Amino acid sequence: MGEFMAGAGRQVITPAVGARLYGYTPDVYSTSVNDDLTASAFAFARDGVKALLISVTVCLVNTALSDEIRTAVAAATGVPATHIILCATHTHSGPCTEGNTGWGELDRNYCDKIFIPGILAAAQAAVRNHSPAVMGVGVVNSRVGVNRRQLNRDNTVSLGQNPWGCFDPAMTVLGFRSKDGRPLAALVHYGAHCTASGKNTEITRDWAGVMIDRLEAESGALTAFFNGAEGDVGPRLANGHTVGNIRYAMEHGAVAAADALEAFRSIKEYREPSFVCAAGEVRLPYARRMPLGEAENALNALKGAGSINLSGRRLEYLAGVVEAHRSGRPPREYFAFPQTIVKIGPAVLVPFPFEFFSEIALRLRQYSPFAHMLCLGCANGNFGYLPSRAELCRGGYEIEMFRTSGDQTLADDADDHIIAENLRIAEALACTE
Hints:
29% of the residues lie in helices and 28% in strands. By secondary structure, the protein is an alpha/beta fold.
């Protein structure tokens, strides 16, 4: 058996001041740079199997752009596109690499001149710099995140803090060293929105940036953040909300840094890990398409409404339903996307092209045969929010987003299916443990 290889590379991908920021409304423009945005790439290989794990400090990367980038990275590095996982950290204080109605158009100029070249350079450096390596895992429970679906006295749900709501407390650090003890890389996994800065105008990686810088300074290893189940989780800020300002982001980042350092310091042993990838297809059932008459009535009721944020999304959704009916487009049975799961020793990395709810990650970990089942949010594209079925009845922002996706939305039990589908693919790796 050949040696396990690991390498890391990084490139600054900060846009010019004045660039439109993405995450709230399309009228927010940057006025300064608080901290640089980055693309960090990690290359892994063993016995001819290669993979790249890439973290970009932007909000989201739309699926078409993600596919374009992964194809370009594959051509530049020789790593198969199917073995490249591209993850966004979900900072709301970076440029628009998603683009959708109500939030603003894709910043194509930024993508072509800074974003894509930066990712390519980081990936090439990671592959070029890789060397024989060993791996260790550290885990702590962290209260950096909190369920953000605040349940109000009138039974409505708003974005805030829900102290009894579900969230995943596990913060996991994967550490990699050369066989002679030289630090190579550190990956921090945790699930929480990077929204502590609020609707600010400073370009920033938000709270996760402080965490990464502190751990990198102590470990000496190139370090990056990989967001997890952040769909219903925000930063647990002292103001009682999950948005604040740049000061809140920096203060909260220090709290996260303390937890990440504790997890890193808890690593007692580094061993040469097994390494394998499994590919497949995930299929999720569609719900029944809204009837034409119902869609037409709802669309007429929204005439004159604005097109910012959710109102724009509702208009686009209803217009799409009407167009699908009138054009005779048949309803679809299921939605499918390609999936690649990467196993490095006891850690299994499962990309989700969704902002998915924390219960999904907790259930998947409970059912998994692996010691560390790490679900990666906002990975390999974006198909919107994926809530747990139990939360659908309460409504709220995330549920409205889920109910207005395309001309045919996913079924209420899509969470059950995405768990079962990923377990089916992952369990093929169990014999390598």
